[in-house]
């Protein structure tokens, strides 16, 4: 079972040209139900409303991360005759392929509203009663746990962890290139082939040969640009806010005993915070979109309106919120003004601060889960990247926030609201 | 209402870099519910099971066709000072944007099984009670009908029809480039910019300046390659066959009074061949996928098995069928053999002949709906392309068929069937 | 000496991204004087006057051919565990790198006028008293002769010959991609990575697995397009004609005892058809251009005028000549008319028929030096490509000629010539 | 004379796809002898020894700058209805095309050794007795002076100057994209189309709409990367040093009355610092390379050795020199040690400090000739870029030096030198 395929299989991939599969284990994992499910979960959640090309799935990305990992191991062997033992080689490849398997539909909104945790679900899928688990166990009984340990960053060999989760890991390299390709922006492009050539295993981590410093610098800037140009785009964030409000409204209606046109069977375990592995695996984006279509016809005004907004891209506008973040009163007053004109602020005023996202912009040396990048200097010593690069230094360690308050401008301007209250709201939100 | 936007809007597009919108009409059409619905229908149906990058929607493609049309008109103006009247300019742009609006989910399978016709639905959406209709009517009361007439190829000015539907129209140029980009293949690439430079309005059609002959030749070959490498790919076709069998099984069960776990509300109007515009617009791919997920748990063995096959990419294998096409007995004998080992051939044997598809490989001068391509020669006369190009001549007018018989090889080999019958089937299907 | 480099070296290459060098032999050959000289000879001769990007050298291309050969051998090893003996591996790589080393400046014009033969010079450089020879001899005393035998197609192992010279060899694959890249056209692009994956050694030749048929088809069309769009471009051919006339005039002046401003030391051995290896190696394009600059100031009207034409891109126009090719009288009458108005037809009327070029458009199965392409069919047999592909069939075996007569239209129209003769010439040449 | 062409002409350009020419003036300027001469001068001097693809000429680049300028003006017209008067439009286009016309072969080395100044020569070519001048004068008698004034930054309308020479001008945008393309690196890539969309004329300069901030940031980083990865590459710089030493040696020999094998006719005016316009225009890279080939056979050991080094890429190695820059004694001692082992430090020790180059890395607001970049903020005010971007701030205003000492390591190790002196030199230069 755990052997090489008789003949190599390939997938045509727009980003890496071809994804090469030579191990039966990998081929079987790709065919597993839980992995095929990633075809039904988009990589970039709501970004497609802004960048219409960004319709690619996590299936796409997961294959890409696997392929990068495969190339890293190949480079290590060819270039510096460094090879892992067979089981650790399979561990690296499996962990790369499986690292996102716990993601749900519109992950970020889901996690915020329903308090699910995709990393926890990844672990449960790997070690639970699943096809993926049965395939992994064929390598050895504790193989699924080892894969989970790598993804959970508790595995005994930190070198392998750093290939999967560091500031310059296979995951990040793939998503930058892939998201750049599908959005059609150029910001995330960097010379991956060059970087693969200069990665080196060094004691318990992966480091970068100093000659590759500028290539890595370019990668860090690519990452920085993608965050500000793509991932934190205001239209995308607005769609996220609306989506969260929809989920909150549906949940609140459920608890109040509201009678839905179509019972939200798939959502009830989430509403009740009591969900089995099987129920979780049933959740995908077509399911969410199916309910959303139904909710566009619900009699509840708020659920219906929000769902229609999401479906037809009639989103909220934003006001800068940075300086107000600490001021509870200011927000309460806005809430009050909204209530005065008949708009429920619970569902129609959304604060969004993208640095809250589980993505993190490069933070060198900071506590946290991602190791910094070290350069391997000519004298054989290591030097942390931001010490050598003024550009990286300039953007490292600085968490940037983008606090915005999202609200339905069209409601304010629909001509049915008290003009002086609307004027006051607009003044406070600095609507021009 | 029908004017220029205060400031041009753009969409970032990976294929054309930017899609430019300057007319309020176009901006409003893009925002219409019926157009946003195209985000939920994939451009290439089941191709994503073969080419994982091919997850792009018809929304994507429709914007692209619009942009190419916009550039053609711009070139006409800038290069040869040819301009349509304002209403005809808007007609060209609207028809380009709207040409696919009637497509349903997995269009080709749907049309085969449920006898829907996307061109008819396009017409109904344009002239029926829809947002799109209300927006178009702001130009003039008969504007929606004119758009429909262009798409239906009955409009009085054939020059405009040829921009939308000819052997080298905005539709084809976009889908070749776009499908190439998203699949990651290179076969569909050609130099569109060059072609746009050599298109010329000539009496009642668009022709190509003779200096562009080789560029057009390249486009025709690109098209030919895409059909054989991408659109007719056997894995994709196998997924189509399985999908059709699923729809047929669900329909047959419905008519037999089968009790579904989850009533197929959205499908019933299709099963009953009596569907309203509103019901049709409710159908999208998330809806189909939602039912498919449910059907994976149905008690009916056939519906459940087929649905699981589709979801988990456990598809049918194929046997060459070309020489057998005419032989009813041969097929009946195979059916019989399948029955003998307990496999229902109605749902487990599928004939597929992709040239049946409504796509047609370039056929010069043949009767049919697509005009041939004419070159504008130095002496001012016209010459049909295949007269000038040996390459085009070699592939024109020849309809190629790719008859295949699809069947579940895994069933035959599951060890539960009578060995001598299985052997006989394999012999006849030439399974190696 | 003949070993692996301590650390792999790479060249950044726009076409193949990186050229990888792991053998000391290859590294040393690249550094040899005779190979560095290829930096001073353009790959596409006079094409740069038409496509200003086409300024790349044969050095560029030779590295590319080497890299493709290296990848073919790597694929053979990785994919089907086929490996040559070490010496044959080095032979393949060396022959790929060296295959163009005998080229002189503006090769085609040179060979026509001075009857040099770059293949003969390649052989002399490999086996003569050169740095290249001394480096090759370190492998074994007869190694240089073996390299020459491969390039001369007399080597005992035809499999290796077919990697270097067949209808789908490393040389052609590189020049199509490279010339496409530098000219900025897209015609020569094809999916090389796919082709490398389907090449197979089969008895005494390289064949193509049948699954790669369409990729090879695409390559053949790419080649066809490049010939007609780039290599045979009329402006380029005109520059060739002018260049040949310059060389002829300079030679004729030399034999008449003309006193040059600057003695054409480097050309005299060519004029006298008696040239040593050292003298040949001294000839490069800067040398030719240096003389050309001087000739722009010569007192001889013809040499000066032609040189200025070449330098300042004031080239000849062309008349179609196809149907006249066989008619000696027609040409003699034109010559006579030119003489009547004081233009010497020897230097101002040039016939050009590009299929005379040592390039040949794909000819399947024809006698000659390039083997046809065979497909390896599922049943293990071989099938010649044009038997399977209607496109290839349509362009194979047909030699296309592009006969043109080039002449200085500006002279005819300078207002100093007898009007009735000019009129008659224009009528016969069909000048509009 | 000064009108539109009957039909637009295009050049195929790999970077901008097409260069469009609609004005007869521009067409004629491109055909002028002095402009065609730029075909014989490489854009990146000695970079081709490092990046073999970098063989493109200044002709290439000049067309590109013109095309960008044309697009900027087109955007201004289409997007914000801003148009220059006809003469100023032609001024912009002509200045863009002509801005590099004064460059000589291997410009930087030439200017260092022979104290020529390409800006001064540009002016002389524009206003002197040249074809270019005669063509420009057809617009108006003082038109050539106006073009020269724009390039010399003394023209009365600073807006036009800022289009040609600012921190984000047509010149820089072209060379980054072009040098990236031909070297095959990716560092210089940025989204030019986006930047062209956000440029705005604002009083007397060009500014950038604030929405384009990240695109400009990306451009600045691209520029920074190109300097450190490409323009200051050590192998390139080494070739520069060797080239300068060759010129110095040839000049010194001339003044000592040395009898050259081939009298350096073209160099004598440079050696004597007394050169006419005609003599200057005769200098191009083929001429320099021609002499270099001859010098490879000179009897003078130093000139011959240095020339062979340059021709065969046998360059100098480098030692870090940064901390020693100010120490005259340290350098004198190294010189002395070289003399002790028979190597003349005048020609075999070269200091190189690339920030001395006339390129300047982005310096915001510093005195000098390049204006900083201003963002046009939502409130209509301007903000200097580095105030808004931490990345730009991190690299602005900081001149980085890369002081290196280049020397022939192979000489030290040829086994003929006193070992203890060689050891001492290696110790001081820290050769490992």
TrEMBL record, chains A, B, C, D:
Q: Do you know which SUPFAM superfamilies this protein is assigned to? A: HD-domain/PDEase-like
Q: Which InterPro entries match?
A: dGTPase-like (IPR050135), HD/PDEase_dom (IPR003607), HD_assoc_2 (IPR045509), HD_domain (IPR006674)
Biological-process GO terms, alphabetical: dGTP catabolic process
GO molecular function per UniProt: dGTPase activity
Which segments constitute the HD domain? 58-176
Q: What Pfam families does this protein's entry cite? A: HD, HD_assoc_2
Q: What is this protein called?
A: HD domain-containing protein
